[in-house]
């Protein structure tokens, strides 16, 4: 089967490994969810997908995490969003600082680990387009 949706689904599935998350959805899927407010989610990134002109927004749904992880991600969600905002403004030192604070609260947050490493890399080597 070949289609835009299948291509995007395959790409998202492969990205779950990169970010270390269980459930990854596109912005379009999030916007189409009925009662999206009932889900625990956070914005992760924007990625370019082969065959699409515009980048795709990625969101982690963390309802499937353990109760402890879900609670810690809810607790650090606003800090996480602030760090992601700073990261996209290429304020890598500030993003690293906040991600470090998140990891002190939740050392198992694989996305915070990912962005801490990525911010460090970009701060030291300049912004590299993915």
List the helices and strands and how they pair.
Layout: H1 4-19, E1 23-26, H2 27-32, E2 41-47, E3 56-61, H3 67-88, H4 92-105, H5 110-125
Antiparallel strand pairs: 1-3, 2-3
Helix pairs in contact: 3-4, 4-5
Question: What would you say this structure looks like, in words?
Answer:
The structure is a single chain. By secondary structure, the chain is α+β, with helices and mostly antiparallel strands. It has 2 domains: 1-64, no CATH class; 66-130, no CATH class. The protein has 5 helices and 3 strands; from the N terminus they run H-E-H-E-E-H-H-H. The protein has helices at 4-19, 27-32, 67-88, 92-105, 110-125; strands at 23-26, 41-47, 56-61. The longest helix has 22 residues, at 67-88. The mean pLDDT is 90.
What key attributes describe this structure?
three-stranded antiparallel beta sheet, globular, single chain, 3 strands, alpha+beta, 130 residues
**Physical arrangement of strands within the biggest beta sheet:** 1-3-2
Give the termini separation: 28 Å
Shape: globular
User: How much β-strand is present in the residues?
Assistant: 5-15%
What fraction, in percent, of the residue positions are helical?
A: 55-70%
Q: Number of helix segments?
A: 5
Compressed to H and E, one letter per element, the order equals HEHEEHHH
Instruction: Name the structural class.
Output: alpha+beta
Unreliable stretches covering 5 or more consecutive residues: none
Q: Averaging pLDDT over every residue, what do you get?
A: 90
Radius of gyration: 15 Å
Main beta sheet: strand number and arrangement? 3 strands, antiparallel
Q: What's the domain count?
A: 2
């Amino acid at each position: 089967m070949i289609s835009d949706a299948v291509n995007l689904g395959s790409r998202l599935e492969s990205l779950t490994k990169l970010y270390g998350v269980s459930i990854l959805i596109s912005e379009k899927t999030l916007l189409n969810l009925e009662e999206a407010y009932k889900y625990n989610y956070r914005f992760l990134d924007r990625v370019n997908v082969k065959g699409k002109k515009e980048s795709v927004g990625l969101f982690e749904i963390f309802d499937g995490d353990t109760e402890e992880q879900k609670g810690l991600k809810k607790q650090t969600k606003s800090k996480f969003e602030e760090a992601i905002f700073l990261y996209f403004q290429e304020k890598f030192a500030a993003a690293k600082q906040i991600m470090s604070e998140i990891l002190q609260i939740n050392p198992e947050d694989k996305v915070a680990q990912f962005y801490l490493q990525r911010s460090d890399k970009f701060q030291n080597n300049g912004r590299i387009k993915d």
